[in-house]
Design goal:
InterPro entries: ARM-like, ARM-type_fold, Armadillo, HEAT, RSP14. It comes from Tetraparma gracilis. This is Radial spoke protein 8. It is built from 23 helices and no strands. By secondary structure, it is mostly helical. α4 packs antiparallel against α5, α5 packs parallel to α8 and α22 packs antiparallel against α23. 48% of the residues are buried.
Amino acid sequence: MATPQPHEAKGMPILVQEEKVVEAFGALKCPKLIAQISQENNTVLRNNALKVLCEELRNPYSASGVTNVGAVPVLTSLTTKSEDKNTRENASKALAAIAVDSNGRASMIKEDAPGQVLSAISDSSPVVRSNVYEALQSLSCVRAGVSALVAAGYAPALVAKAKSEADDVRHQPLQLLLACIKNDEGLTQALDSEAVSACIGNLEHKSTLVRTAAAGCLGYLAFADSAKIAAIQEDAVPLLGSMLEDSFWKVRAAAAGALMSIIQTDAGKKALVPAGAVPKLIKLLKDPNDLVKINVLKTIACAAVHPDARKEMRESSDCLPVVHQIMDAGDELLSKHAKIAREAVLWQP
């Protein structure tokens, strides 16, 4: 017969591991979990509790529960103030998870989470930075979230990060910047911080995600006349023209969209022809992706105002025939833009 262990002897208490997260049930579940995360003396327990929280946040009911018991301020504090890297990484991961939930986003706005975690986009850990970008990207899906980001000063901060962020996560500040500039004040702040130059500097980045985000952001910035002028002066048109041949369809679509915005000015149209972009646009009329074709049709319609560009389009053996094919293919949206492009190409002064 086996000898009883000390903790198995009758009347002796069972020893409990201090680092083990023991689940509570019912109304006590969420408060206990947040209490374990909030404690300061046991880093192992805190990180274990944070990992459990990340799993719990997959459940919408739990997400609502932990939000109601004050998870957001605890997580923002740990993300920015903890000296333990694992804690910052786990806390920021939980914050990204909670931001997916509508209650979590509401709590983040109420608690000024954007302002609280602004410093975390400069954390020494790329995991923390990536998690924070992800959390704020989820927050930006609601208008109040974008307003909170702009009020916290993210537009200029993200422009700076677009120039300095590590290659593997650089697309994230650019994507978040795109959300910020859809707010009028955010757009002004970004332009004042030389966002156009930051985007152009990323158009030739090795990452397809970065190239896509940079072109998309530049296209939206170029709705402002000052951005159009800056983009032309900094030779964005030839760069975007070369991106029309990119192997990744999202890059091609974003490049065509950016060109469409920039060439609204006469100077932009004049830059298009010497950049050799017209034949590339015509070729993309046969692109397999509909978004690419829609952006190309819009760009062709705009570019055709310029006599030299219109002459190239008319003399092309592909341009008008392919435009007619798109018109007859049965897709209502594509057909609409194809008709507009055809009229522009056939226009007589």
